[in-house]
Amino acid sequence: MTYTSSKVLTFEEFIAQYGDNTRYELIDGQLRDMEPTGLHEAVAGSIAGRIYVEIFNSNFNWLIPKTCLIKPPAAEATALRPDVIVLDKAELSKEPLWSKEPIICNGSTIKLVAEVVSTNWQDDYARKVEEYAFLNIPEYWIVDFRGLGGLQFIGNPKQPTFTVCQLVNGVYQQQQYHLGDTISSELLPNLQLKLDDIMPI
Description:
Blueprint: E1 2-3, H1 11-18, E2 24-27, E3 30-33, H2 38-58, E4 62-63, E5 69-70, E6 84-88, E7 103-104, E8 110-116, H3 121-134, E9 139-144, H4 151-154, E10 161-168, E11 171-177, H5 195-198
Parallel strand pairs: 5-7, 8-9
Antiparallel strand pairs: 1-3, 2-3, 4-6, 6-8, 9-10, 10-11
């Protein structure tokens, strides 16, 4: 992740200039280049595919958009672009921007977000944990397939880690999984998934 400009952007300026460019998100007016790699995108695609199978098999009225921004109501000049986001179709009619732009403003529309960790691991493990909890998103997955996170987040020695954050009384309870572990999700109780299954070749 790099900061690409010293100029502070408003949310509106970001949407006008970078809204269609999936490389960028905006945090507190700072433009972030998320520097996606092929491996990063492969992992994100595998996660989205696994979730979609569960949505289809369970007949949930949810969808996974190709691209989507989150505009947290309490954060000025912030537009988050999760690697994978699951939306409740029934709530989309309450979204003020959705009919014109793939932008979500209400946390109640979001069932799950997943972030594939890259060089911006500080955002994934700290800032976004707070933002997504404040939005009352039931589950947040942090997929650190390269073991990049700080020692205080993934332990020592560093290793590939899949963290499931489940919202309990407004705070995320975190459960970590490593290679070989079966991942558990309250939101998707029939999910059969291990970190091994989504590791890039």
